[in-house]
Amino acid sequence: VERTRLDDELKAELLELQSRNLLRPRPETARPQTGLVDVCSNDYLGYGRLPVSRETSTGSPGAGASRLIFGTHAAHLELERELADWVHCEAALLFSSGYVANLAALAALIKPDDVVVSDELNHASLIDGCRLSRATVVVARHRDLQAMEGALSQASARRRWVVTESYFSMDGDSPDLPKLRDLCDRRGAYLYVDEAHALGVFGPEGSGMARNVGVRPDVLVGTLGKAVGVQGAFVAGSTPLIDFLWNRARGFVFSTATSPMLTGVIRESVRRLRNDDGARARLRDLCQLFADLLCRTGAGLPEERHGPIFPILFARPERALEVAAALRREGFLAQAIRPPTVPTGTSRIRITLHADLTPLEVTRLAMLIGEQCPGS
Ligand SMILES: Cc1ncc(COP(=O)(O)O)c(C=O)c1O
């Protein structure tokens, strides 16, 4: 194949990434199916690996159109009602992914003359959604309520917003949602909470962190490809909010509706998950065991970390790569997470535990990490 100048320029950029140990090579084989124990996926309850029953996958494979044109099927309406009920909101709207949900909802709701206070460790989809809104964005230090309050008190804007995750995907910590709600109320701001990694894991029926601490966000986002184990996302809130997004969220309006067949699979998974306190308890026990063992081996964990996400931090990206390779040789699939996904100097192995791991596997993993990073 003949290469163009564009190809040469892109190759140069890739080489530059490689020279900084930041290149992600595109795999030529599928993810390993056997042998390696997954301690890196977001499949916290192991649902993504469950077989789908024939009765569950009965809907048509394609929705045929966007929701507004001709693509709204009974399965969508049913799932949206159940999702709203799950997170105790009036209504919910399905999106094709969490990335799209955040991009579309933030860009629709936040206007150029608004001010948004955004936690510095927010996910790329939240950052990009804020940028797309063209509002003034103030990036606040991670979970720093004072910084957020300062930013809100200085802002003279039509509307003010605070945008945060409820369980940070790379750090495994959480904002103080009750205090954040209080701050928003005092400063006349709206609270936008992304529950991507909290849903299924925390709260009654796994309904997330907000319900767990009795906080009602103005906008709540949940994803369906993590603990729910399938794909997609939803925004939940008041009926006017959802009616507005139905009309104005471009990533929803101008996109083919989720496959009705897949929607049925999601609904079954959500139903199962709501009733699966057993899996949540197993996960909690494994997390406690792992945290205790890591503590004993001397491998440090950030103080505020909790739940199934365990960041093991390294100053240099190459050290994270070496430790990931060592764990792989011992049968564990853990990924090195490097900039730009995380800030420079905070490369890490991000371990995620799942309810279907065994205590023996978790113990072995903790021992291996202890050997690799004594006192890291
Ligand atoms: C906080 C957060 N929001 C949104 C997303 C995107 O969700 P999805 O993978 O469904 O696009 C992620 C995924 O990593 C996430 O961590």
Structural key phrases:
14 helices, 15% strand, binds pyridoxal-5'-phosphate
In N-to-C order, the SSE pattern is HEHHEHEHEHEHEHEEHHHHEHEEEH
Name the shape in a single word: globular
Q: Could you list the spans in which at least 5 consecutive residues all have pLDDT below 50?
A: none
The radius of gyration computed from the alpha-carbon positions, rounded to a whole number of angstroms, is: 21 Å
Bound molecule kinds, no repeats: pyridoxal-5'-phosphate
Q: State the assembly state of the protein chains.
A: single chain
Largest sheet: 7 strands, mixed
Q: Percentage of helical residues? A: 40-55%
Structural class: alpha/beta
End-to-end CA span: 47 Å
Report mean pLDDT, rounded to a whole number.
94
Strand order of the largest sheet: 2-8-7-6-5-3-4
Give the DSSP E fraction (strand runs of 2 or more residues).
Answer: 5-15%
Question: Helix segment count?
Answer: 14
Tell me the total number of β-strands.
Answer: 12
Short description:
By secondary structure, the chain is of the alpha/beta class. It has 14 helices and twelve strands. Helix 12 packs parallel to helix 14.
Description:
With 376 residues, this protein is α/β, with parallel strands linked by helices. It is built from 14 helices and twelve strands. The chain has helices spanning 5-19, 67-71, 74-86, 98-109, 124-133, 145-154, 177-186, 209-212, 239-248, 250-253, 260-274, 277-297, 317-329, 359-372, and strands at 37-38, 91-95, 115-119, 136-140, 160-165, 189-194, 219-223, 233-237, 309-314, 332-333, 335-337, 347-352. The strands form three sheets. Strands 2-8-7-6-5-3-4 form a seven-stranded mixed beta sheet, sandwiched between helices. It has a three-stranded antiparallel beta sheet with strand order 9-12-11, covered by helices on one side. Helix 7 links the parallel strand 5 and strand 6 (189-194). Helix 3 packs parallel to helix 11 (260-274), helix 4 (98-109) runs parallel beside helix 5 and helix 12 runs parallel beside helix 14 (359-372). The longest helix has 21 residues, at 277-297. The protein is globular, with a radius of gyration of 21 Å. The model has no long low-confidence stretch (mean pLDDT 94). Pyridoxal-5'-phosphate is lined by residues 97-99, 102, 123, 125, 165, 169, 194, 196-197, 223, 225, 233. Pyridoxal-5'-phosphate (PLP) binds at residues 97-99, 102, 123, 125, 165, 169, 194, 196-197, 223, 225, 233.
